[in-house]
Amino acid sequence: MTDEHGNEENRRWQADAQTDATTPRIGKTPRTGIHECGSAGFDASQGRRVPSSADQGASNRVPMDENPDEGDPGHGDRGGDRPAPGHSHTGQAPDSPITVPGWDEYFLGIAAAVSARAKCTRRRVGAVLVHEHRIIATGYNGAAPGRPDCLEGACPRGRLGYAEVPAFSDYDVPGAPGFCIAIHAEVNALLFATRDTAGCTAYVTDQPCPGCRKALAAAGVVRAVWPGGQFDVDELVDWSR
């Protein structure tokens, strides 16, 4: 029986609530004190705090200030391969001032690199044509493309030393001991220029011969520079020099 205040009914609700808290029901998750959302909870049956999935994931993380590849030579940009503080990839001491070559020195260095391709036993020459500090052509001395060259013994001049055939002696008389089969570096640069050569400067590893001076002047080159000397536009065709 229940009184008018429903006390009996209240007691049954309280008993049901206690049973529901300790007895799993079919189709429902047992109430163990562990939150289902993955956060940490308290396991009443074991009397301890149960770590959440987020806690377990955190235990597997590498701390931000630790690098698992530290010192690993297999990682080129990490670990033991990192440059020491102050290291310079230019090979320059970290505290020394940085120096930059002037334009003439810079382009003469490029001409020297070009000369490595030259096909001559007497003198390997490289030339660079420059317009407003931009390279428009390079050339080196050698025979016409696809033809036997000096390195193959095809050049009469190349078979003789400077004691027999001095420098700047006539190159262009077929049958003469000093005949040269090569197209000179300056002329090759003019032949393969990517634009009009008027107003250019020619940087050459050696002083241009008279024939190359004429060709440079005819192409509009206004200056020729080589290590230790130069010609301006008038000096290119001044045959007293």
Give your account of this protein's structure.
This protein is an alpha+beta fold and 241 residues long. The protein has a domain at 103-145 and 183-237: Cytidine Deaminase, domain 2 (3-Layer(aba) Sandwich). It contains five helices and seven strands; from the N terminus they run H-E-E-H-H-E-E-H-E-H-E-E. A five-stranded mixed beta sheet has the order 4-3-5-6-7. Strands 1-2 form a two-stranded antiparallel sheet. Helix 5 links the parallel strand 5 (201-204) and strand 6. The model is unreliable at 26-40 and 62-80 (pLDDT under 50). Pfam families: dCMP_cyt_deam_1. One of its GO terms (cellular component) is cytoplasm. Belongs to the cytidine and deoxycytidylate deaminase family. One of its GO terms (molecular function) is dCMP deaminase activity.
Proportion of residues in β-strands: 5-15%
CATH third-tier fold name of one domain: Cytidine Deaminase, domain 2
Distance between the termini: 137 Å
Characterize the largest beta sheet: strand count, sense, and whether it forms a barrel: 5 strands, mixed
Q: Which CATH C-level class of one domain is it?
A: Alpha Beta
Average pLDDT reading: 77
Q: What form results from the Cα inertia axes?
A: globular
Arrangement of strands in the largest sheet: 4-3-5-6-7
CATH superfamily of one domain: Cytidine Deaminase, domain 2
